[in-house]
Amino acid sequence: MKASQQWYSQRVQQDITLVRWGNFGRPVLVFPTAGGDAEEIERNQLVEACGELIETGRVKLYSCESVAGRALLAKEGSSEYQMALLNAYHEFVRREVVPAMYADSGGTEQLVLATGSSIGAFNSVAVLCRYPDVFGAAIGMSGTYRIERFYDGPVTRDFYEASPLHFLPDLQGPALDLIRQRFVVLASGQGAHEDISESWVMANHLGRLGIPNRLDDWGVEWPHEWHTWRKMLPQYLAELA
After folding, report:
1. What is the DSSP string of 69-125?
2. CA atoms within 13 A on the CB side of 148
3. 3-state DSSP assignment of residue 182
4. Is residue 31 a contact partner of residue 68, using CB atoms and an 8 Å limit?
């Protein structure tokens, strides 16, 4: 049921691991939290929480390292380098990870469902909006979407191209029309370390542009923790996969 592959990516200049759980079903790319690796979701029982959906062939989960998030946490290089890496990371996902997922599925090019928690939620919404040709929906859990505040310098062109809050208002025509055929779920609790205002900012931003989305408020009993996401993800995958 579990398989992995590794390769060196010129785009992000490092070795990458892509892990898959399941053999059949809708391909789901799960982005780790800020500094997480490809197996973070297994160690934190998120894969187990989706076990029934995996075993019945509803979904296949994939995950790879959070390359840009790791550099941000470690303050690796300059702020400009970290923003450039974020842009390159998204391109790596589109040009390398998604084709690897298709090849793993025998060449079947089904629209991928993107998901993640915290900064992983940012990445999932970003790749859907940047690449609606290969991503069909996004599930952002406990999302952090205004991540420019974590960088030490001003917003660069690389960051503008990677951040939906920045690049979406300038889209028009066929590019925007295609995103309007996709769907975004934004879910957040209001417990410890949650900030649902981040999800409202993104929901309002998408809504103003006519991009279908829904915000689910899980209430004060759900904190910014893995047990919250273990409850959320199977529910949304059952709805969307």
Report:
1. HHHHHHT-S-HHHHHHHHHHHHHHIIIIIHHHHHHHTTT--PPEEEEEETHHHHHHH
2. 15
3. coil
4. no
pLDDT surpassing 80 at residue 22: yes
Residues 42 and 75 sit within 8 Å (Cβ to Cβ): no
Cβ neighbours, 10 Å, residue 11:
18
pLDDT at 105: 85
Average pLDDT over residues 127-139: 98
CA–CA separation, 75 and 37 (whole Å): 17
C-beta of residue 84 within 8 angstroms of C-beta of residue 158: yes
Alpha carbon distance 61, 54 (integer Å):
8
Alpha carbon distances (Å) from 30 to 61, 87, 104, 238:
7, 18, 16, 15
How does the average pLDDT of the chain come out, rounded? 96
Enter the DSSP assignment of 225: S
Other CB atoms within 10 A of residue 160 CB: 15
Does the pTM exceed 0.85?
Answer: yes
Read off the pLDDT of residues 145-204 as tens digits, 9 standing for 90 and up: 999 999 998 999 999 999 999 999 999 999 999 999 999 999 999 999 999 999 999 999
Question: What does the pLDDT average to over 228-234?
Answer: 98
Domains and CATH numbers, the chain: 2-240 (3.40.50.1820)
Name 53's Cβ contacts closer than 8 Å, sequence gap at least 6.
25, 59, 234, 237, 238, 241
42, with CB counted inside 10 A (0-12, 13-18, 19+), is: middle
Alpha-carbon distance of 128 to 94, in angstroms, equals: 10
